[in-house]
Amino acid sequence: MAHIEFAPSLPGILGPLAFRPETAKPLNELADVLLRGPSSLTRGERELIAAAVSEANGCGFCARSHAAFARRQLDNGDQVVAATLSDFATAPISPKLKALLSIAHHVQAGGNQVTTDDVAKARLHGATDVEIHDTVLIAAAFCMFNRYVDGLATSAPDEQGAYDAMADTIVQRGYAATMPIPNEG
Q1: What's the rounded Cα separation, in Å, for the pair 96 and 90?
Q2: What CA–CA distance (Å, rounded) separates 131 from 88?
Q3: What pLDDT is recorded for position 183?
Q4: Cα–chain center distance at 161
Q5: What pLDDT does residue 89 have?
Q6: Among 68, 102, 109, 129, which is most buried by a count of CB atoms within 10 Å?
Q7: What was the pLDDT predicted at 8?
Q8: Which pLDDT does position 180 carry in this prediction?
Q9: Torsion of Cα atoms, 102 then 108 then 113 then 117, to 10°
Q10: Count of domains forming the chain
C-alpha cells in the first residue's frame, strides 16, 4: 500500500507525478531529454541503461517499464534486454555499451565509484564525452526516480501487458507528452 493515496489506475511513478504536476513537468522533461533527445546513443540503448540501473536498485516498476521501452526500440529487443539485465558483460551488445553500462552500475553504487579507468575503457571503445556524461546523468537520474517510486511505496502491475501498453505510448509520444491526469485523491 502506497504511503500517500494515489489514483489506483496510476501505478509506479505515474501516481506521484499526478499528485504533484508542478514537479512532474520538469521530471518528465528531464526524462525526455535524457532518453529521447538528440544523442549518438540510440533511444533503446539509453532505455537499456535506465532499465539496468533500475534493476540494480531493485525498483521493479522502473526496471520492468524501461525494459519494455528498450525492447521496443532495440533490434532483437527481447534477447538483448534479458541478456543485459542478467549479465551485461556477456550480453550481445557493443563493447562501448558494455563500458557505459559499467559506468552506470558504478554510479548506481555511488557516484565516487566511477574511476578514471572506467572512463578510459569507455573512450577506448569509442564513447564520446557526451555519451559518458549522459550515461552518468541517466544513471544518477534513475537512482532518484527509483527512490521516488519506492520511497512512496507505489504499486506496480504484475502483468507484462501493462508495461507493454506503457511502452507503446512512451515510444510514440515520449515522456513530457504523457503527463498523467492530476490525482483527485
Answers
A1: 13
A2: 18
A3: 55
A4: 18
A5: 97
A6: 68
A7: 79
A8: 63
A9: 20
A10: 1
Q: Which amino acid is at 98?
A: K
Name 71's Cβ contacts closer than 8 Å, sequence gap at least 6.
77, 78, 80, 81, 167
Q: Is residue 9 part of a domain?
A: no
Task: Find the domain containing 58 and state its range.
Answer: 19-176
C-alpha cell at 79: 534477447
Buried b (16+ CB within 10 A) or exposed e, 7-16: beebbbbbbb
Mean pLDDT, range 50-61, rounded to an integer: 98
CATH code of the domain in which 85 resides: 1.20.1290.10
Residue 152 lies in a domain: yes
- Tell me if 2 is assigned to some domain: no
DSSP, res 114 = -
Amino acid at 89: A
Please state, in angstroms and rounded to a whole number, the distance separating the CA atoms of residues 60 and 62: 6
Q: Which three cell numbers stand for residue 41?
A: 546513443
The answer to whether residues 59 and 149 touch, using CB atoms and an 8 Å cutoff, is yes
Dihedral over Cα of 91, 37, 51, 81: its sign: negative
37 close to 26: Cβ distance less than 8 angstroms: no
How does pLDDT run across 69-84, given as a tens digit for each residue? 999 999 999 999 999 9
Q: What is the pTM of this model?
A: 0.95
184 lies in some domain:
no
Report pLDDT for 177: 78
